[in-house]
Design brief:
mainly beta; globular; single chain; Porin
Length: 382
């Protein structure tokens, strides 16, 4: 679940260690941003809490590119997200130091796929990890201000192929580039400490879907982790320098089912295995040793349902997910999520809005962090 989770942990560490010096604070805060997949990408998976991760059509391509083969004609969607986190995790003496929440409005995903015979092709853009943070604090008798931002973005081509004479299934791949960029500026008295890192790497995911019956679809997908060669320019305590290292994104696997027992009901279920133990932060751009913040993979089970109201113009969705496997060392990890959403259809177009609540534990303490997310998506189907 992603860099929401560790962005919060990083802020907690940074604010709690403000007395250790501005340079140390900025380096911790920037470098500890993890290379994990953060939040939800669109309103559909937010409402269903990723219960549709293996069978959710083009919106689910990031975890299972095989879902592109569910398109009939041409289909696409674009999504925005907005997240507000509770500040319960902040120390009492630091609660008033936070001037701006991290990860506000963000253009989080865009995808379009067209069918041509038994082949499918298109493109996908996803921003599963992004933040922008602005906070102030005290270091001894001096005040400081830190501005931090960064993102992890995927730009990919999508290809699919229907299999079987009755077109009962299909395979798909997503291949392209992952772009990492982070920057920090910390002002204190007469000094301005700064840092900037960036890197590119290849990204790849593959998956399939199988339409067992008219009402039953099975799916599975896997996204491989990427090793990003990170270059960093920094200037702390008026000592400019250049460092390079490696940052690793997490691998992710998903299996799931979609079942329509009768019109107008559809049920979803999935299991998602996120390789947090494979991910490494970008701290290597500033330190000589690797740092892996994660101690284990995270396994999440999700269930969801949707119902189309009479006439088919409105669709209601709801879902819930629960972490059933895994832990992370000295970090914030997800516990559960609940979501609701509504879809409104206008001929070929659709618009949907979802609300989701995510709860996390911090260093083994349940409910220390809560995130409230608002997601909006628009789509078309020709």
């Amino acid at each position: 679940m992603r860099s929401l989770v560790l962005t919060i942990a990083v802020l907690w560490l940074a604010l709690g260690s403000a007395a250790g010096g501005v340079a140390e604070t900025a380096r911790l805060t920037l470098g500890d941003v993890p290379r994990t997949h953060s939040h939800y990408l669109n309103a559909r998976e937010a409402a269903l809490c990723r219960a549709d991760a293996a069978t959710g059509g083009v919106a689910a391509y990031f975890l299972n590119p095989g879902t592109v083969t569910l398109v009939d004609g041409a289909n696409g969607q674009a999504s925005m997200r907005y997240n507000v986190k509770s500040r319960e995790y902040l120390p009492d003496d630091a609660a008033d130091r936070l001037d701006a929440s991290d990860d506000g409005f963000l253009f989080s995903q865009a995808v379009a796929v067209k069918r041509s015979g038994s082949a499918f092709y298109g493109f996908g853009y996803s921003a599963p990890s992004y933040r922008s943070v602005d906070f102030t604090g005290l270091d001894g008798g001096d005040s400081y201000r830190a501005e931090l931002s960064g993102g992890l973005r995927f730009f990919e081509l999508l290809l699919g192929l229907s299999l079987g004479g009755r077109e009962q299934g299909g395979i798909g791949i997503a291949a392209g580039l992952v772009d990492l960029e982070e920057q920090a500026h910390v002002s204190r008295a007469d000094t301005l400490d700064s840092a900037q890192i960036d890197g590119l790497a290849a990204s790849f995911a593959a998956g399939f879907v199988y339409e067992a019956t008219d009402g039953l679809i099975l799916g599975a997908g896997h996204r491989w982790g990427a090793s990003v060669d990170v270059d960093g320019e920094w200037n702390f305590d008026d000592r400019p320098g250049h460092r390079s290292g490696e940052s690793k994104t997490q691998s992710t696997s998903v299996v799931g089912v979609q079942y329509r027992p009768a019109e107008p009901f559809t049920l979803h279920a999935s299991y998602i295995q996120e390789g947090w133990h494979d991910a490494e932060s970008s701290l290597t751009a500033y330190e000589d040793t690797d740092r892996d913040l994660f101690g284990d993979a995270i396994g999440t089970a999700a269930l969801g349902a949707e119902v189309a109201l009479p006439g088919g113009r409105y669709v209601l969705r709801a879902g819930a997910s629960q972490v059933v496997q895994g832990d992370a060392d000295d970090a914030i990890v997800p516990e559960y999520s609940v979501g609701v959403g509504v879809v409104v259809r206008f001929r070929e177009y659709s618009a949907e809005v979802s609300l989701v609540r995510e709860q996390f534990e911090l260093n083994g303490k349940s409910g220390e962090v809560v995130n409230y997310g608002v997601y909006a998506s628009v789509g078309y189907a020709f």
